[in-house]
C-alpha cells in the first residue's frame, strides 16, 4: 500500500512476497516510477481498499501473508 517492489531486472511486482514475479505491474526500464505507481499498482490498492479481493490477481487471492499482517487502511486527507 505504501511501497513498490522492483526485481533486479526492473519489473515491478505486486509486493515483496511475489518473488517469482507472478504478476508484473510495470517495468521501470520502460516507464517512470510515478507512472507505475499510478497504473496497475493503483488499481490493486483500490481493489484492496474496496475489499474486492475476488478481483485481485490469482497470486494475491491465494496469499496468506497480507492476512497475517496488520492490514488496516488509513485515508490521508490533503
Tally of alpha and pi helices: 4
Portion in helices: 25-40%
Strand order of the largest sheet: 1-2-3
Indicate the low-confidence ranges by residue numbers. none
Largest beta-sheet details = 3 strands, antiparallel
Calculate the terminal CA-CA distance, rounded to whole Å: 17 Å
Shape type: globular
Mean pLDDT: 83
The proportion of residues in beta strands is: 5-15%
* Class inferred from helices and paired strands: alpha+beta
Please count the beta strands (DSSP E, at least 2 residues each).
3
Q: What is the subunit arrangement here?
A: single chain
Order of helices and strands: EEEHHHH
Rg over C-alpha atoms, rounded to the nearest angstrom: 13 Å
Question: How would you describe the overall organization of this protein?
Answer:
Helix content is 31%, strand content 12%. The protein has 78 residues and is of the alpha+beta class. Strand 1 and strand 2 (11-13) form a beta hairpin. The longest helix is centred in the middle third of the chain and has 10 residues, at 40-49. The model has no long low-confidence stretch (mean pLDDT 83).
